[in-house]
Description:
single chain, 3-stranded antiparallel β-sheet, 40% helix, globular, alpha+beta, binds iron/sulfur cluster
Amino acid sequence: xxxxxxxxxxxxxxxxxxxxxxxxxxxxxxxxxxxxxxxxxxxxxxxxxxxxxxxxxxxxxxxxxxxxxxxxxxxxxxxxxxxxxxxxxxxxxxxxxxxxxxxxxxxxxxxxxxxxxxxxxxxxxxxxxxxxxxxxxxxxxxxxxxxxxxxxxxxxxxxxxxxxxxxxxxxxxxxxxxxxxxxxxxxxxxxxxxxxxxxxxxxxxxxxxxxxxxxxxxxxxxxxxxxxxxxxxxxxxxxxxxxxxxxxxxxxxxxxxxxxxxxxxxxxxxxxxxxxxxxxxxxxxxxxxxxxxxxxxxxxxxxxxxxxxxxxxxxxxxxxxxxxxxxxxxxxxxxxxxxxxxxxx
Length: 345
Ligand code: SF4
């Protein structure tokens, strides 16, 4: 793609850009805080799912200083349901680092941004280009697909990543790199669609090698995926006479670190026998197994969680009771919300 094609893409973007709450009006520079927050939320998450979370965060914490001053627990509560909770912990750590090291303002170079918690090469490039107008080339899934098709790259992913990056950098214009990146994202999201690209509406159709070769819909090629392993666990839903259920906080590090959960066994490769599982129960009680296990898919494994329910009272360090109407305010990850729904009906 030549520079005239970049100009065509930018002209298309001026007409067809998506109106998103983190974007600046045409001709204005975007707020770095909004760009950063949206880019973190959009990792592994759709625009539709991220948008209400973004609006809630912005309303509650309108700038980095406010977010840095918030307790981590409050941030995790408002993140609950969005998944990939390490992002929320890093978001909070990053806000604190920016407040302490940079006076509450995100630095404006890729190198300085990458020194911050939770900001990798993609996010640093996106913020540098979109919020600070630097020449930088973020490559997300949408941009990856557009570039692969434009240059008819037939090497399967992830092996093709280095070539895609080289090609993407080569077509990034010196000026307006932020708008160019957002235009590529929008083209991927609205025109160069995964299964059926709408080439007749595409401003780049004239120079698209994938289209010319008639192979665009089949790109990008992907290396065969390994099957996700399955893990098994048992969750214990203990109900007090007033309807409250027993919860606890997970350890701060690791998967779902710092989130709230129904007391559960480890999640392991072998299924649990009832005898083994009951040794891990939070209290002696008449535990009943609910019919179907709760199934949940994480990035690296499927989890099959058998749910046991009982009535009882207990009090131990690190555990607490919440009534059903209070659960919405807890930092319960999606898998634990499923467990509660299954147990409480
Ligand atoms: Fe994608 Fe078609 Fe445009 Fe090529 S011409 S970039 S395949 S939408």
